[in-house]
Amino acid sequence: MGPFTIVRQKVHLLGVSPGDGSLFVDDDGTGYYIYTDIANNYRIRVEQLTPDFLDTTNKSSNVMATGAEAPLLFRRGDIYYALCGPLCATCPKGAEVQVFTSLSPLGPFSTQLSANINRSNETNIAPTSADTTNQFPTMKGKKGWYEFHPEVSIPIIAAQETWVAKISASGQSAYVWIGDRWDSSPDGLIAHDFQFWCPLEFTADGHILPLKPIPQWNITWTFYP
């Protein structure tokens, strides 16, 4: 609730012009920041923060995608999930969501071409290696990164992701995908736009299943003495 005080004028991230970003704190208390590097073709990467969270250690993951924004990072079991989507500019139709996984918060992160959980018409889009000066191993051992093609995308959910909330439980925790429904408020104010929430579903080997337009769902809490 503040009041807040500026203690560092500039965090020395590797990205030239950091844009969208979100914080992730691992089970051991180490902080990480996943963000969009706007000046470098909107690249997505993760950086490890210093123990006080006030700067970066300059330890970084590989670049996962270009032309992307709205990145987030979370952990389920031993798997780290990095999610992001194409540039959306408050798009009412929503945006696709590509999933990258790793066994470490700094990667290397990789993806399968079918790991887009908010695109209803999957298209076999190959990675690109157009940038010959900065190439990173990602998909299936190839050189390149994921390139979004929103012109062939029809999102399942008309929302752009903003967060994945973890609901802790005594057994296996639940994870809820949250997306902004742009241009949905009756008064037209962007600050009043609604959100869409739905539980994420996982396969036995940890893959996230496509999102579903669930109109209603419930959480049942059981308390034990």
- For this structure, the CATH topology is Tachylectin-2, Chain A
How many strand elements? 12
Number of spatially distinct domains: 1
CATH class: Mainly Beta
In round numbers, the mean pLDDT is: 85
CATH architecture: 5 Propeller
Distance between the termini: 34 Å
Assess the beta-strand content as a share of residues.
Answer: 25-35%
What's the overall geometry?
globular
Strand order in space, largest sheet: 1-2-3-4
Unreliable stretches (pLDDT < 50, length at least 5) are 123-144
Class based on secondary structure composition and strand pairing: mainly beta
Rg from alpha-carbon coordinates: 18 Å
Largest sheet geometry: 4 strands, antiparallel
CATH-assigned homologous superfamily: Glycosyl hydrolase domain, family 43
Give helix % range: under 10%
- What order do the SSEs take from the amino end to the carboxyl end, as H and E? EEEEEEEEEEEE
